[in-house]
Design goal:
With 480 residues, the chain is α+β, with helices and mostly antiparallel strands. The protein has 3 domains: 3-103, Uridine Diphospho-n-acetylenolpyruvylglucosamine Reductase, domain 2, CATH 3.30.43.10; 110-220, 2-Layer Sandwich (Uridine Diphospho-n-acetylenolpyruvylglucosamine Reductase, domain 3); 224-426, Vanillyl-alcohol Oxidase, Chain A, domain 3 (3-Layer(aba) Sandwich). The protein is built from 14 helices and 22 strands. The chain has helices at residues 18-27, 40-44, 64-77, 127-135, 151-156, 164-167, 195-201, 237-249, 290-297, 316-321, 345-356, 405-420, 440-444, 448-458; strands at 3-4, 15-16, 32-33, 57-60, 81-84, 100-103, 110-113, 118-122, 139-140, 174-180, 186-189, 210-217, 219-220, 224-233, 255-263, 278-286, 306-309, 312-315, 332-340, 364-369, 391-399, 425-426. Strands 14, 15, 16, 17, 18, 19, 20, 21 and 22 form a 9-stranded antiparallel beta sheet that branches. Strand 10 (174-180) and strand 11 (186-189) form a beta hairpin. Helix 8 (237-249) crosses helix 11. The structure holds flavin-adenine dinucleotide. Flavin-adenine dinucleotide (FAD) binds at residues 47, 83-90, 93-94, 104, 123, 144-146, 149-150, 152-154, 156, 158-161, 206, 210-211, 327, 431, 466-467. The site of flavin-adenine dinucleotide (FAD) has 33 residues, from strand 5, helix 5 and strand 12.
């Protein structure tokens, strides 16, 4: 009589007995981890060190049949459910206190069809798993920019990577998904089959079920790409960002860049006299001929005297791993975003000024250049609504000391809320969500009502609520 499940206010707590767990184990192929297990702490840990949840049970699925069994267990015992893909969501949605984690991190299989130019990736695959296999064929699908990130969470909320302006969001390149819905049914969603579900999963997050596999379109990419990675001193940040804004107005779709403020790390590859100084960095890649990349990026390399310029041609898989070591597991993180109509002088001043106030030298403020293929689709073509915005700004608070949690969260939160007071600032991106604080209208805009309808059809009791939650009609978010 060990594990307590859902503690609905005013109702008798539901108990998940040792017998019930044993019975589940006979039906479930993968490891079933409970608090006494030696692997418990390692298995429950998430990428964000701030999150410290203690689930009653972690069901590590080996395939779709295990996912179906885990969903059945949750329904049978009325357990709070978290779904884990790559475990990289900053808000820690991939775990739950006293509930069931349906963990797909063992489901990392990737199958490439080089003739059809598609790839099938299981629901626990990371970007690195997919890139490694697709690049064997000189192919890639647009995902994100850090290889350890989970494909599932990233794609279901949109997915912004090095190919976004050329080929769109990760979710724009889904051909089909296999998904286990709250009723335990295994469904396929494509443009022709369960089309409402297919619309909703492309930007509506993990609300509609557990995706056990994604089929993505592939494109010829690499194997090497020219990259941009130039570091300027923070004294030049305002001028560099203004010039960057002008560049983005005519940038090629082959060029995907972002600008971010940071402090120069104390590493041998940087001049010692610059260590700890504020910096602004232009980072990106060019998916086209190297000679064209030179012309495209040359003006961005001479905006001031650079501290250092690491730009150069490198294998696509290396490009995808270039930032990995900046985001180690277990460090403390709080990330939040907004979209901009324009990168105005006022916004640039705000970014540069607030970066200087960050309590941690590891934190950044990032300006993503969007547009291109992202904006080719109408806002209601998929659930991802923020198609027109040419820029997204993200406050990334990154720090080491738990005693500094409040100060760092406050820095990120205030940076964004002050930005929201300025003209042309709107919306929020589901993949950089702060700690569960963006309401549906900010996230989903005009698409929100349709998402509520589809949620009500496929998950009327809100079984999948640990996400950017869309509350079904008749349920309330506090209903747990
Ligand atoms: C280091 C780092 C770099 C990042 N870089 C980028 C980037 O370049 N571009 C970008 O767009 N985003 C980026 N992100 C944000 C990233 O997209 C989100 O953190 C995303 O949630 C990660 O997905 P995950 O599978 O690891 O999430 P998890 O934490 O495992 O899950 C998060 C949410 O997704 C849902 N979910 C997970 N798996 C499934 C599934 N199989 N089926 C249904 N729902 C599921 C869960 O319900 C949960 O709500 C980055 C994040 C990190 C930590």
């Amino acid at each position: 009589m060990a594990k307590v499940g859902r503690t609905t206010e005013g109702a008798t707590p539901v108990e998940l007995t040792a017998d019930a767990i044993q019975a589940f184990e006979t039906r479930f192929a993968g490891p079933v981890i409970t608090p006494g297990d030696p692997a418990y702490d390692e298995t429950r840990a998430l990428w964000n060190g701030v999150i410290d949840k203690r689930p009653a049970l972690i069901a590590q699925c080996t395939g779709t049949a295990d996912v179906v069994e885990a969903v059945a267990l949750a329904r049978e015992h009325d357990l709070p459910v978290a779904v884990r893909g790559g475990g990289h969501n900053v808000a820690g949605y991939a775990s739950v206190d006293d509930g069931l984690v349906i963990d797909l991190s063992l489901m990392t299989g990737v199958l490439v069809d080089p003739v059809a130019r598609t790839v099938l990736a299981q629901g626990g695959a990371t970007l690195g798993h997919v890139d490694r296999e697709t690049q064997l064929h000189g192919l890639a699908t647009p995902l994100g920019v850090v290889s350890a990130t989970g494909v599932a969470g990233l794609t279901l909320n949109g997915g912004l990577g090095h190919l976004r302006r050329k080929y769109g969001l990760a979710c724009d390149n889904i051909v089909s998904v296999e998904i286990v819905t709250a009723d335990g049914q295994v469904r396929t969603a494509t443009v022709d089959q369960n089309d409402d579900l297919f619309w909703a999963i492309r930007g509506g997050g993990g609300n509609f079920g557990i995706v056990t596999s994604f089929e993505f379109r592939l494109y010829e990419v690499g194997p090497e790409l020219p990259s941009l990675f130039v570091w300027y001193h923070g004294d030049d940040a305002v001028d560099v960002l203004k010039a960057y804004r002008e560049y983005t107005k005519t940038a090629s779709r082959d060029a995907n860049t972002l600008a971010f403020t940071y402090a120069v790390p104390e590493l041998a590859e940087f001049p010692k006299e610059a260590w700890g100084e504020p910096a602004v960095i232009l980072f990106g890649a060019y998916d086209g001929p190297e000679s064209d990349a030179d012309a495209e990026f040359a003006p961005l390399k001479t905006l001031a005297a650079p501290i250092v310029d690491f730009s150069g041609t490198l294998p696509y898989v290396e490009l995808q791993r270039l930032l990995d070591e900046d985001y180690p597991d277990g460090l403390r993180y709080y990330w939040k975003s907004v979209y901009l109509d324009d990168l105005t002088d006022e916004i640039i001043d705000h970014i540069v000024h607030t970066h200087g106030e960050s309590p941690s030298s590891l934190s950044t403020v990032d300006v993503w250049h969007l547009g291109g293929a992202i904006a080719d689709r109408d806002a209601d073509e998929t659930a991802f609504a923020h198609r027109d915005a040419p820029y997204m700004v993200t406050y990334e608070a990154n720090w080491e000391d738990a005693a500094m949690d409040d100060a760092n969260v406050a820095w990120g939160r205030t940076g964004i809320s002050d930005l929201r007071q300025l003209e042309g600032v709107a919306g929020a991106y589901g993949n950089f969500p702060g700690f569960d604080e963006a309401p549906g209208d900010l996230l989903f805009g005009e698409n929100y009502e349709r998402l509520v309808e589809i949620k009500t059809t496929y998950d009327p009791t809100n079984l999948f609520k640990l996400n950017q939650n869309i509350v079904p009609r008749g349920a309330s978010q506090a209903d747990d």
